[in-house]
Amino acid sequence: MKNLLFFGLVVLFTLLSCTNNAQTGIKSTKRTVISDDSLLTLVQRQTFRYFWEGAEPVSGMACERINVNGIYPENDQNIVTTGGSGFGFMAILAGIERGFITREEGLARFEKNISFLNRADRFHGAWPHWLNGETGKVKPFGTRDNGADLVETSYMLQGLLAVRQYFSDGNPREKQLSEEIDKLWRDVDFNWFTQGKDVIYWHWSPDYGWQMNFPVEGYNECLIMYVLAASSPTHPVQAAAYHKGWARNGVIKGITTKYGYTLTLKHNGAPEYGGPLFWAHYSYLGLDPRNLKDEYANYWEHNKNQTLINRQWCIENPKKFKGYGPDCWGLTASYSVNFYAGHAPGTDNDLGVISPTAAISSFPYTPEYSMQAMKHFYYTLGDKIWGKYGFYDAFSEQADWYTQQYLAIDQGPEIVMIENYRSGLLWNLFMSCPEVKQGLKNLDFSSPAINK
Protein backbone atom coordinates (compact mmCIF):
# COMPACT_ATOMS: atom_id res chain seq x y z
CA MET A 1 0.00 0.00 0.00
CA LYS A 2 2.97 2.35 0.41
CA ASN A 3 2.87 3.37 -3.26
CA LEU A 4 -0.82 4.19 -2.97
CA LEU A 5 -0.30 6.02 0.30
CA PHE A 6 2.44 8.10 -1.26
CA PHE A 7 0.20 8.96 -4.19
CA GLY A 8 -2.66 9.89 -1.91
CA LEU A 9 -0.49 12.02 0.36
CA VAL A 10 0.99 13.93 -2.55
CA VAL A 11 -2.40 14.62 -4.07
CA LEU A 12 -3.74 15.57 -0.66
CA PHE A 13 -0.89 18.04 -0.17
CA THR A 14 -1.50 19.43 -3.66
CA LEU A 15 -5.17 20.00 -2.97
CA LEU A 16 -4.92 21.44 0.54
CA SER A 17 -5.10 25.00 -0.74
CA CYS A 18 -8.05 24.33 -3.05
CA THR A 19 -11.69 24.90 -2.21
CA ASN A 20 -13.46 21.52 -2.04
CA ASN A 21 -16.33 22.50 -4.30
CA ALA A 22 -19.44 20.53 -3.32
CA GLN A 23 -23.19 20.84 -3.37
CA THR A 24 -25.44 19.95 -0.46
CA GLY A 25 -29.17 19.72 -0.11
CA ILE A 26 -29.71 19.43 -3.89
CA LYS A 27 -32.81 17.52 -4.99
CA SER A 28 -32.68 15.18 -7.94
CA THR A 29 -34.89 15.61 -11.00
CA LYS A 30 -36.88 12.53 -11.96
CA ARG A 31 -35.52 11.00 -15.17
CA THR A 32 -37.22 9.11 -17.99
CA VAL A 33 -36.32 5.43 -17.95
CA ILE A 34 -34.38 4.26 -21.02
CA SER A 35 -33.06 0.84 -22.03
CA ASP A 36 -29.96 -0.49 -20.33
CA ASP A 37 -28.07 -0.36 -23.64
CA SER A 38 -29.07 3.27 -24.16
CA LEU A 39 -27.97 4.12 -20.64
CA LEU A 40 -24.54 2.60 -21.27
CA THR A 41 -24.20 4.70 -24.42
CA LEU A 42 -25.38 7.84 -22.62
CA VAL A 43 -22.84 7.40 -19.83
CA GLN A 44 -20.07 6.75 -22.33
CA ARG A 45 -21.02 9.77 -24.45
CA GLN A 46 -21.26 12.13 -21.51
CA THR A 47 -17.99 10.90 -20.00
CA PHE A 48 -16.28 11.10 -23.40
CA ARG A 49 -16.87 14.83 -23.36
CA TYR A 50 -14.35 15.19 -20.54
CA PHE A 51 -11.56 14.10 -22.89
CA TRP A 52 -12.95 15.75 -26.01
CA GLU A 53 -14.50 19.10 -25.08
CA GLY A 54 -12.68 19.40 -21.77
CA ALA A 55 -9.20 18.76 -23.16
CA GLU A 56 -6.44 21.33 -22.74
CA PRO A 57 -6.69 23.35 -25.99
CA VAL A 58 -3.05 23.59 -27.08
CA SER A 59 -1.98 19.99 -26.50
CA GLY A 60 -5.36 18.28 -26.73
CA MET A 61 -4.34 16.27 -23.67
CA ALA A 62 -6.50 15.47 -20.65
CA CYS A 63 -6.69 18.06 -17.90
CA GLU A 64 -5.86 16.69 -14.46
CA ARG A 65 -9.21 17.81 -13.07
CA ILE A 66 -12.22 19.89 -14.02
CA ASN A 67 -15.04 21.21 -11.89
CA VAL A 68 -18.57 22.00 -12.93
CA ASN A 69 -17.60 25.57 -13.81
CA GLY A 70 -14.44 24.82 -15.80
CA ILE A 71 -10.81 23.97 -15.18
CA TYR A 72 -9.89 23.71 -11.51
CA PRO A 73 -7.98 25.19 -9.79
CA GLU A 74 -7.79 28.36 -11.86
CA ASN A 75 -4.01 28.64 -11.88
CA ASP A 76 -3.71 25.10 -13.29
CA GLN A 77 -5.84 25.62 -16.36
CA ASN A 78 -3.18 24.26 -18.69
CA ILE A 79 -1.84 21.40 -16.57
CA VAL A 80 -2.34 17.99 -18.14
CA THR A 81 -1.96 14.53 -16.71
CA THR A 82 0.06 11.92 -18.59
CA GLY A 83 -1.57 8.81 -17.15
CA GLY A 84 -5.04 10.32 -17.40
CA SER A 85 -4.31 11.25 -21.02
CA GLY A 86 -3.42 7.64 -21.75
CA PHE A 87 -6.84 6.67 -20.42
CA GLY A 88 -8.29 9.47 -22.54
CA PHE A 89 -6.67 8.15 -25.72
CA MET A 90 -8.53 4.88 -25.20
CA ALA A 91 -11.73 6.79 -24.45
CA ILE A 92 -11.41 8.62 -27.78
CA LEU A 93 -11.02 5.31 -29.61
CA ALA A 94 -14.24 4.16 -27.97
CA GLY A 95 -15.81 7.47 -29.01
CA ILE A 96 -14.88 6.85 -32.65
CA GLU A 97 -16.33 3.35 -32.55
CA ARG A 98 -19.54 4.59 -30.90
CA GLY A 99 -19.96 7.36 -33.47
CA PHE A 100 -19.51 10.25 -31.04
CA ILE A 101 -16.87 11.65 -33.42
CA THR A 102 -15.58 10.61 -36.82
CA ARG A 103 -12.39 8.67 -37.45
CA GLU A 104 -10.97 11.78 -39.12
CA GLU A 105 -11.72 13.92 -36.08
CA GLY A 106 -10.09 11.38 -33.82
CA LEU A 107 -7.03 11.18 -36.04
CA ALA A 108 -6.61 14.96 -36.00
CA ARG A 109 -6.76 15.02 -32.21
CA PHE A 110 -4.21 12.24 -31.92
CA GLU A 111 -1.89 14.08 -34.30
CA LYS A 112 -2.08 17.09 -31.99
CA ASN A 113 -1.37 14.87 -29.00
CA ILE A 114 1.67 13.21 -30.58
CA SER A 115 3.07 16.54 -31.77
CA PHE A 116 2.88 17.73 -28.18
CA LEU A 117 4.42 14.57 -26.71
CA ASN A 118 7.32 14.78 -29.16
CA ARG A 119 8.30 18.20 -27.80
CA ALA A 120 7.35 17.67 -24.17
CA ASP A 121 9.87 17.01 -21.39
CA ARG A 122 11.02 13.42 -21.14
CA PHE A 123 13.61 11.75 -18.95
CA HIS A 124 15.23 8.62 -20.36
CA GLY A 125 12.17 8.43 -22.59
CA ALA A 126 9.66 8.64 -19.73
CA TRP A 127 7.23 11.48 -19.08
CA PRO A 128 6.52 13.17 -15.76
CA HIS A 129 3.17 12.96 -13.98
CA TRP A 130 2.14 16.51 -14.95
CA LEU A 131 3.02 18.68 -17.94
CA ASN A 132 2.17 22.23 -18.92
CA GLY A 133 -0.07 21.79 -21.96
CA GLU A 134 1.10 25.03 -23.53
CA THR A 135 4.85 24.62 -23.12
CA GLY A 136 5.42 20.90 -22.62
CA LYS A 137 7.47 21.63 -19.52
CA VAL A 138 7.21 19.51 -16.40
CA LYS A 139 5.11 20.71 -13.49
CA PRO A 140 6.40 19.05 -10.31
CA PHE A 141 3.98 16.62 -8.69
CA GLY A 142 5.92 16.99 -5.45
CA THR A 143 9.14 18.49 -4.15
CA ARG A 144 11.37 15.75 -5.59
CA ASP A 145 8.87 14.52 -8.18
CA ASN A 146 9.92 16.77 -11.07
CA GLY A 147 11.17 14.17 -13.51
CA ALA A 148 10.24 10.75 -14.81
CA ASP A 149 7.16 8.94 -13.52
CA LEU A 150 7.34 5.46 -15.01
CA VAL A 151 3.94 4.34 -13.73
CA GLU A 152 2.12 7.29 -15.32
CA THR A 153 4.25 6.75 -18.43
CA SER A 154 3.02 3.16 -18.56
CA TYR A 155 -0.60 4.27 -18.37
CA MET A 156 0.18 6.65 -21.23
CA LEU A 157 1.82 3.91 -23.28
CA GLN A 158 -1.07 1.51 -22.70
CA GLY A 159 -3.29 4.04 -24.46
CA LEU A 160 -0.75 4.98 -27.12
CA LEU A 161 -0.19 1.38 -28.16
CA ALA A 162 -3.94 0.89 -28.53
CA VAL A 163 -4.00 3.96 -30.81
CA ARG A 164 -1.01 2.63 -32.77
CA GLN A 165 -2.78 -0.64 -33.42
CA TYR A 166 -6.05 1.08 -34.34
CA PHE A 167 -4.46 3.09 -37.15
CA SER A 168 -1.57 0.82 -38.16
CA ASP A 169 -3.24 -0.55 -41.29
CA GLY A 170 -4.91 2.70 -42.34
CA ASN A 171 -4.16 5.35 -44.92
CA PRO A 172 -0.68 6.95 -45.21
CA ARG A 173 -1.52 9.66 -42.69
CA GLU A 174 -2.78 7.09 -40.18
CA LYS A 175 0.28 4.89 -40.71
CA GLN A 176 2.49 7.92 -40.08
CA LEU A 177 0.76 8.47 -36.75
CA SER A 178 1.34 4.83 -35.79
CA GLU A 179 5.01 5.13 -36.70
CA GLU A 180 5.44 8.22 -34.54
CA ILE A 181 3.80 6.45 -31.61
CA ASP A 182 6.09 3.49 -32.15
CA LYS A 183 9.14 5.75 -31.85
CA LEU A 184 7.88 7.24 -28.58
CA TRP A 185 7.34 3.74 -27.22
CA ARG A 186 10.82 2.60 -28.27
CA ASP A 187 12.43 5.63 -26.62
CA VAL A 188 11.39 4.63 -23.08
CA ASP A 189 14.39 3.11 -21.33
CA PHE A 190 12.64 0.77 -18.91
CA ASN A 191 15.84 -1.07 -18.07
CA TRP A 192 17.52 2.13 -16.85
CA PHE A 193 14.84 2.40 -14.16
CA THR A 194 16.03 -0.82 -12.52
CA GLN A 195 19.32 0.77 -11.40
CA GLY A 196 20.84 -2.58 -12.28
CA LYS A 197 18.71 -4.38 -9.67
CA ASP A 198 15.92 -6.93 -9.91
CA VAL A 199 13.13 -4.39 -9.45
CA ILE A 200 11.82 -1.28 -11.23
CA TYR A 201 11.86 2.14 -9.59
CA TRP A 202 8.91 4.49 -9.99
CA HIS A 203 10.62 7.93 -10.19
CA TRP A 204 13.77 9.69 -11.30
CA SER A 205 14.53 13.41 -11.07
CA PRO A 206 17.18 15.39 -12.97
CA ASP A 207 17.74 17.37 -9.76
CA TYR A 208 17.27 14.72 -7.06
CA GLY A 209 18.20 11.52 -8.88
CA TRP A 210 16.77 8.43 -7.19
CA GLN A 211 16.05 10.15 -3.85
CA MET A 212 12.35 9.28 -3.95
CA ASN A 213 13.46 5.64 -3.78
CA PHE A 214 10.20 3.85 -4.62
CA PRO A 215 10.84 0.32 -5.83
CA VAL A 216 7.54 -0.87 -7.31
CA GLU A 217 6.49 -4.02 -5.49
CA GLY A 218 3.09 -5.72 -5.82
CA TYR A 219 0.26 -6.06 -5.47
CA ASN A 220 -1.22 -2.67 -6.39
CA GLU A 221 -2.12 -0.73 -9.54
CA CYS A 222 1.24 -1.11 -11.30
CA LEU A 223 1.21 -4.52 -13.03
CA ILE A 224 0.97 -2.84 -16.45
CA MET A 225 4.38 -1.22 -15.92
CA TYR A 226 6.09 -4.58 -15.52
CA VAL A 227 4.28 -6.03 -18.52
CA LEU A 228 5.35 -3.11 -20.71
CA ALA A 229 8.89 -3.19 -19.32
CA ALA A 230 9.19 -6.86 -20.29
CA SER A 231 7.64 -6.06 -23.68
CA SER A 232 9.93 -3.20 -24.69
CA PRO A 233 11.59 -3.94 -28.07
CA THR A 234 14.54 -1.68 -27.24
CA HIS A 235 15.11 -1.49 -23.46
CA PRO A 236 13.44 -4.52 -21.83
CA VAL A 237 13.85 -5.61 -18.24
CA GLN A 238 14.63 -9.19 -17.41
CA ALA A 239 11.99 -11.51 -15.98
CA ALA A 240 13.88 -11.54 -12.68
CA ALA A 241 12.73 -7.97 -12.02
CA TYR A 242 9.13 -9.17 -12.19
CA HIS A 243 9.56 -12.29 -10.09
CA LYS A 244 12.03 -10.94 -7.52
CA GLY A 245 10.85 -7.32 -7.47
CA TRP A 246 7.15 -7.09 -8.24
CA ALA A 247 6.28 -10.57 -6.93
CA ARG A 248 8.86 -10.32 -4.12
CA ASN A 249 10.11 -13.86 -4.62
CA GLY A 250 6.56 -15.20 -4.23
CA VAL A 251 5.62 -13.16 -1.17
CA ILE A 252 2.97 -11.49 -3.36
CA LYS A 253 0.90 -14.65 -2.89
CA GLY A 254 -1.31 -14.57 0.17
CA ILE A 255 -4.72 -16.18 0.18
CA THR A 256 -7.50 -14.45 2.07
CA THR A 257 -11.24 -15.12 1.87
CA LYS A 258 -14.06 -12.71 2.71
CA TYR A 259 -17.80 -13.24 2.15
CA GLY A 260 -16.91 -16.44 0.29
CA TYR A 261 -14.66 -14.67 -2.24
CA THR A 262 -10.94 -15.45 -2.31
CA LEU A 263 -8.03 -13.15 -3.12
CA THR A 264 -4.87 -15.04 -4.07
CA LEU A 265 -2.61 -11.97 -4.07
CA LYS A 266 -1.57 -10.03 -1.00
CA HIS A 267 -2.70 -6.41 -1.47
CA ASN A 268 -0.14 -3.92 -0.18
CA GLY A 269 -1.44 -2.42 3.04
CA ALA A 270 -4.89 -3.99 2.58
CA PRO A 271 -4.46 -7.73 3.17
CA GLU A 272 -7.91 -8.42 4.60
CA TYR A 273 -10.43 -6.98 2.12
CA GLY A 274 -8.29 -5.82 -0.78
CA GLY A 275 -7.27 -2.33 -1.85
CA PRO A 276 -9.20 0.41 -3.66
CA LEU A 277 -10.99 -0.83 -6.76
CA PHE A 278 -8.83 1.12 -9.19
CA TRP A 279 -6.30 -1.67 -8.65
CA ALA A 280 -8.65 -3.86 -10.71
CA HIS A 281 -8.99 -1.18 -13.42
CA TYR A 282 -5.90 0.85 -14.32
CA SER A 283 -3.64 -1.99 -15.44
CA TYR A 284 -6.49 -3.78 -17.18
CA LEU A 285 -7.82 -1.08 -19.49
CA GLY A 286 -5.72 -2.64 -22.26
CA LEU A 287 -4.23 -5.70 -20.59
CA ASP A 288 -6.98 -8.28 -21.01
CA PRO A 289 -7.60 -10.05 -17.69
CA ARG A 290 -9.86 -12.70 -19.20
CA ASN A 291 -8.18 -15.99 -18.36
CA LEU A 292 -4.90 -14.17 -17.83
CA LYS A 293 -2.77 -16.32 -15.54
CA ASP A 294 0.71 -16.69 -14.16
CA GLU A 295 2.14 -18.64 -11.24
CA TYR A 296 0.68 -16.12 -8.81
CA ALA A 297 -2.94 -15.61 -9.86
CA ASN A 298 -5.80 -15.98 -12.28
CA TYR A 299 -6.25 -12.25 -12.80
CA TRP A 300 -9.86 -12.41 -13.96
CA GLU A 301 -10.95 -14.33 -10.89
CA HIS A 302 -8.82 -12.18 -8.63
CA ASN A 303 -10.21 -8.89 -9.97
CA LYS A 304 -13.76 -10.16 -9.97
CA ASN A 305 -13.45 -11.31 -6.38
CA GLN A 306 -11.91 -8.02 -5.29
CA THR A 307 -14.94 -6.28 -6.82
CA LEU A 308 -17.41 -8.62 -5.11
CA ILE A 309 -15.71 -8.16 -1.73
CA ASN A 310 -15.83 -4.39 -2.19
CA ARG A 311 -19.52 -4.51 -3.00
CA GLN A 312 -20.38 -6.89 -0.18
CA TRP A 313 -18.58 -4.68 2.34
CA CYS A 314 -20.88 -1.84 1.28
CA ILE A 315 -23.93 -4.09 1.63
CA GLU A 316 -22.88 -5.32 5.07
CA ASN A 317 -22.04 -1.68 5.89
CA PRO A 318 -20.46 -2.29 9.30
CA LYS A 319 -19.93 1.45 9.85
CA LYS A 320 -23.65 2.13 9.13
CA PHE A 321 -23.12 4.84 6.55
CA LYS A 322 -26.24 6.32 5.00
CA GLY A 323 -26.95 5.27 1.43
CA TYR A 324 -24.81 2.15 1.22
CA GLY A 325 -26.43 -0.97 -0.19
CA PRO A 326 -26.75 -3.39 -3.13
CA ASP A 327 -27.45 -0.50 -5.51
CA CYS A 328 -24.98 1.98 -4.02
CA TRP A 329 -21.47 0.62 -3.66
CA GLY A 330 -17.93 1.18 -4.83
CA LEU A 331 -14.88 2.26 -2.80
CA THR A 332 -11.77 3.54 -4.56
CA ALA A 333 -9.30 6.42 -4.54
CA SER A 334 -11.11 9.67 -5.33
CA TYR A 335 -12.02 13.06 -3.98
CA SER A 336 -13.30 12.81 -0.43
CA VAL A 337 -15.11 15.00 2.07
CA ASN A 338 -11.67 16.04 3.29
CA PHE A 339 -9.96 16.47 -0.09
CA TYR A 340 -8.67 13.06 -1.36
CA ALA A 341 -8.47 9.53 0.01
CA GLY A 342 -7.82 5.94 -0.99
CA HIS A 343 -11.25 4.59 -0.04
CA ALA A 344 -11.38 0.82 0.43
CA PRO A 345 -13.15 -1.78 2.55
CA GLY A 346 -12.02 -1.88 6.16
CA THR A 347 -12.70 0.23 9.21
CA ASP A 348 -9.76 2.55 8.58
CA ASN A 349 -10.21 3.14 4.85
CA ASP A 350 -14.00 3.36 4.47
CA LEU A 351 -14.91 7.00 5.02
CA GLY A 352 -18.53 6.87 3.88
CA VAL A 353 -17.67 8.09 0.36
CA ILE A 354 -18.89 6.30 -2.77
CA SER A 355 -17.02 6.87 -6.05
CA PRO A 356 -19.17 6.09 -9.12
CA THR A 357 -16.10 5.08 -11.12
CA ALA A 358 -15.59 2.09 -8.81
CA ALA A 359 -18.78 0.25 -9.75
CA ILE A 360 -18.99 1.58 -13.32
CA SER A 361 -15.41 0.66 -14.23
CA SER A 362 -16.10 -2.83 -12.87
CA PHE A 363 -18.68 -3.60 -15.59
CA PRO A 364 -16.64 -6.43 -17.14
CA TYR A 365 -16.36 -8.19 -13.78
CA THR A 366 -19.85 -7.61 -12.36
CA PRO A 367 -22.16 -6.45 -15.16
CA GLU A 368 -25.44 -7.07 -13.31
CA TYR A 369 -24.30 -5.38 -10.11
CA SER A 370 -22.60 -2.52 -11.95
CA MET A 371 -25.78 -1.84 -13.93
CA GLN A 372 -27.76 -1.89 -10.70
CA ALA A 373 -25.45 0.77 -9.27
CA MET A 374 -25.43 2.84 -12.48
CA LYS A 375 -29.22 2.95 -12.54
CA HIS A 376 -29.28 4.12 -8.93
CA PHE A 377 -26.66 6.78 -9.64
CA TYR A 378 -28.52 8.04 -12.73
CA TYR A 379 -32.21 7.67 -11.86
CA THR A 380 -32.24 8.06 -8.08
CA LEU A 381 -29.34 10.37 -7.25
CA GLY A 382 -29.52 12.07 -10.64
CA ASP A 383 -28.58 15.74 -10.65
CA LYS A 384 -26.80 15.41 -7.34
CA ILE A 385 -24.00 13.49 -9.01
CA TRP A 386 -24.55 13.91 -12.78
CA GLY A 387 -23.19 16.79 -14.80
CA LYS A 388 -21.57 17.97 -18.03
CA TYR A 389 -18.95 15.20 -18.12
CA GLY A 390 -20.96 12.36 -16.63
CA PHE A 391 -21.01 11.26 -13.01
CA TYR A 392 -19.13 13.47 -10.60
CA ASP A 393 -16.11 11.98 -8.90
CA ALA A 394 -17.55 11.10 -5.49
CA PHE A 395 -20.32 11.67 -2.97
CA SER A 396 -21.32 10.93 0.60
CA GLU A 397 -24.96 10.71 1.56
CA GLN A 398 -23.80 10.37 5.15
CA ALA A 399 -22.21 13.85 5.02
CA ASP A 400 -24.73 15.26 2.51
CA TRP A 401 -21.69 15.95 0.32
CA TYR A 402 -21.74 15.78 -3.47
CA THR A 403 -18.60 17.05 -5.15
CA GLN A 404 -19.01 18.79 -8.49
CA GLN A 405 -15.56 17.80 -9.66
CA TYR A 406 -14.04 15.34 -12.10
CA LEU A 407 -10.66 13.60 -12.24
CA ALA A 408 -9.25 12.27 -15.51
CA ILE A 409 -7.97 9.10 -13.85
CA ASP A 410 -11.49 8.29 -12.66
CA GLN A 411 -13.46 9.32 -15.77
CA GLY A 412 -11.27 7.43 -18.21
CA PRO A 413 -11.73 3.93 -16.80
CA GLU A 414 -15.52 4.34 -16.88
CA ILE A 415 -15.85 4.74 -20.64
CA VAL A 416 -13.02 2.31 -21.41
CA MET A 417 -14.22 -0.53 -19.19
CA ILE A 418 -17.81 -0.11 -20.36
CA GLU A 419 -16.48 -0.47 -23.90
CA ASN A 420 -14.44 -3.52 -22.99
CA TYR A 421 -17.58 -5.03 -21.49
CA ARG A 422 -19.59 -4.23 -24.62
CA SER A 423 -17.10 -5.06 -27.37
CA GLY A 424 -13.65 -5.84 -25.95
CA LEU A 425 -12.30 -3.05 -28.16
CA LEU A 426 -9.39 -1.79 -26.05
CA TRP A 427 -8.44 -5.25 -24.82
CA ASN A 428 -8.32 -6.52 -28.40
CA LEU A 429 -6.23 -3.60 -29.61
CA PHE A 430 -3.65 -3.67 -26.85
CA MET A 431 -3.33 -7.44 -26.83
CA SER A 432 -2.76 -7.41 -30.60
CA CYS A 433 0.65 -5.79 -30.05
CA PRO A 434 3.29 -8.41 -30.91
CA GLU A 435 5.65 -6.95 -28.30
CA VAL A 436 3.04 -7.36 -25.57
CA LYS A 437 2.44 -10.97 -26.52
CA GLN A 438 6.17 -11.65 -26.30
CA GLY A 439 6.54 -9.69 -23.06
CA LEU A 440 3.81 -11.75 -21.40
CA LYS A 441 5.51 -14.92 -22.59
CA ASN A 442 8.79 -13.65 -21.15
CA LEU A 443 7.08 -13.33 -17.77
CA ASP A 444 5.51 -16.80 -18.06
CA PHE A 445 1.94 -15.54 -18.42
CA SER A 446 -0.68 -17.54 -20.25
CA SER A 447 -3.68 -16.00 -22.02
CA PRO A 448 -5.80 -16.95 -25.01
CA ALA A 449 -4.93 -13.55 -26.50
CA ILE A 450 -1.21 -14.36 -26.61
CA ASN A 451 -1.68 -16.96 -29.32
CA LYS A 452 -4.16 -15.05 -31.49
List the helices and strands and how they pair.
Blueprint: H1 2-15, E1 22-23, H2 36-52, E2 65-67, E3 70-71, E4 79-81, H3 82-97, H4 103-119, E5 130-132, E6 138-139, E7 148-149, H5 150-167, H6 172-187, E8 203-204, H7 223-231, H8 239-246, E9 253-258, E10 261-265, H9 299-316, E11 333-336, E12 339-342, H10 356-360, H11 367-381, E13 386-387, E14 390-391, E15 395-396, E16 401-403, E17 405-407, H12 408-422, H13 425-431, H14 434-442
Antiparallel strand pairs: 1-16, 2-3, 2-17, 4-5, 5-6, 7-8, 9-10, 11-12, 13-14, 15-16
Helix pairs in contact: 2-3, 2-12, 3-4, 3-5, 3-12, 4-6, 5-6, 5-13, 7-14
Give your account of this protein's structure:
The protein is an alpha+beta fold and 452 residues long. It has one domain (43-451): Glycosyltransferase (Alpha/alpha barrel), CATH 1.50.10. The chain has 14 helices and 17 strands. It starts with a helix and ends in a 10-residue tail after the last helix. 53% of the residues are buried.
